[in-house]
Write a structure and sequence with these properties.
412 residues; alpha/beta; 5-stranded mixed β-sheet; 3-stranded mixed β-sheet; 13 helices; globular; binds 2-acetamido-2-deoxy-beta-D-glucopyranose; glucuronosyltransferase activity; transmembrane helix; Glyco_trans_14
Length: 412
């Protein structure tokens, strides 16, 4: 039998002592961030919010909610299901976006799955984006899809704290319980976004070319095309470039979508003709905004391995990378191919997930005898049982938020 898990909500003493280490380190960060001038209107009140969300030990605290976007294209139905089973938690929200290229049969198949899964019916927190968008590889339509999803999430559910984008090449390295547990210690305005103003070779390949994405005005899938003239580097704002995989706060995304400053809007127009705008839009907005630049953590919280410079596409991770995945402490990794054996090892050793079942957590009350599905019986969605992954994530975040890594690496 395994040792009983330590409950956040119950908060036993031994557990508190350890978590306090994290809390105290983070409280310095919290303080710095709380001292920043307020930006924009406060988050709308949610029906489930607890009275004081600034201290992890104030009363019967509930963890923050995460809002996921999972994008996929043709032929990825099985991968979407597996990823969803691995990252699913009844406390969070999941929006699935299928590119317009996905066949109606495939779409209907996924739709049936969402409509028939008992857990989804009960918690009603998984849904497909109704009208699919045309998505052109490297075109601004990739960015508009993300903004579309964020707008849906802002409008339909107002009690999430962070937005996380994934595609079928991503996979989690720890159960959601661990992520929710550790994120409940973080200031809610932190934005995890890998960025740099040192754009190097990308100046000539990204910033100067002008492209047009036919996906903006037509239904047929076509490639972006290039305009003969080049443009100069912008002088009214500074360009930043980084990873398109982000974990962004409610407050920053509300600022981007509602645009009460003109910055998010003018930059959106600038990025319409920018190659691979999803590697620069949020980065440039956040770093040019006085109110948000100090909320950035320069990491995307994904474990990725690169071959050589220039960093074009990440390596496909395999079994031989397993110990590095484990040691990284990152909550997610990419990229994985569909058949990679390392996914089975992650399921077994890190997620404790059986084939075609959800990754179990504190919400699963069923039998954990071999062959039984612990999540066949479910309880309260906010009961969290962190596992070993939470300690890896704690270490990882403390390192990112220490004096050498946090402030000096913001928007430079
Ligand atoms: C952001 O942090 C820098 C350096 O710590 C500080 O000088 C600046 O005033 C801060 N900006 C805001 C808007 O608080
Ligand atoms: C990863 O695998 C995919 C599919 O097999 C392949 O198309 C891609 O080139 C691979 N990536 C690298 C960096 O090898
Ligand atoms: C994994 O799940 C099984 C049953 O589903 C349970 O008996 C076991 O204790 C779990 N292991 C860990 C490490 O959580």
């Amino acid at each position: 039998m395994k040792k009983p898990h330590r409950l956040v909500i119950a908060g036993d003493i031994a557990h508190r002592k350890k978590s306090l280490a994290l809390f105290f380190c983070l409280s310095v960060v919290t303080l710095l961030i709380l001292l920043l001038p307020a930006h924009g209107p406060d988050r709308p009140l949610s029906t489930t919010a607890s009275p004081d969300v600034s201290s992890p030990f104030a009363g019967n605290l509930r963890p923050p909610k995460l809002a996921y976007l999972i994008s996929s294209t043709r032929g990825e139905g099985r991968r979407v299901k597996r990823l969803l089973e691995a990252v699913y938690h009844p406390w969070n929200y999941y929006l699935l976006h299928l590119h317009l290229a996905v066949s109606p049969e495939e779409r209907a198949d996924l739709d049936d799955y969402i409509r028939s899964e008992r857990v989804f019916l009960k918690f009603r927190n998984v849904r497909l984006v109704g009208n699919a968008d045309v998505v052109t590889l490297k075109g601004p339509t990739m960015m508009s899809t993300t903004l579309h999803a964020v707008a849906i999430l802002l409008k339909e559910v107002n009690d999430w704290s962070w937005f996380i984008n994934l595609d079928t090449w991503d996979y989690p390295l720890m159960p959601q319980d661990d992520l929710l547990h550790i994120f409940s210690y973080l200031p809610k305005n932190l934005n995890f976004i890998e960025h740099s103003s040192n754009i190097g070779w990308k100046e000539h390949q990204r910033a100067r070319p002008i492209i047009v994405d036919p996906g903006l005005y037509g239904f047929d899938k076509a490639d972006v095309f290039w305009i003969k003239d080049k443009r100069s580097m912008p002088s009214s704002f500074k360009l930043f470039i980084g990873s398109s995989w982000v974990i962004l706060s409610w407050s920053f995304l509300e600022y981007c979508i509602l645009g009460w400053d003109n910055l998010p809007r003018t930059l959106l127009m600038y990025y319409t003709n920018f190659l691979t705008s999803n590697e620069g839009y949020f980065h440039t907005v956040i770093c040019n905004s006085m109110d948000f630049q100090n909320s950035t953590v320069n990491h995307d919280l994904r474990f990725t391995m690169w071959d050589n410079q220039p960093r074009q596409s990440p390596l496909n991770l395999t079994l031989e990378h397993f110990s590095q995945l484990l040691e990284s402490g990152a909550p997610f990794a990419r990229t994985f191919t569909e058949t990679s054996a390392v996914l089975d090892r992650i399921d077994k050793e890190l997620l404790n997930k059986s084939k075609s079942r959800f990754c179990p957590g504190g919400w699963c009350l069923g039998s954990s005898m071999p062959g039984e599905d612990p999540c066949a019986n479910f309880g309260k969605p906010h009961v969290i049982k962190p596992s070993a992954g939470s300690r890896r994530l704690e270490r990882f975040l403390l390192n990112l938020l220490n004096a050498e890594n946090f402030r000096p690496r913001q928007c430079s």
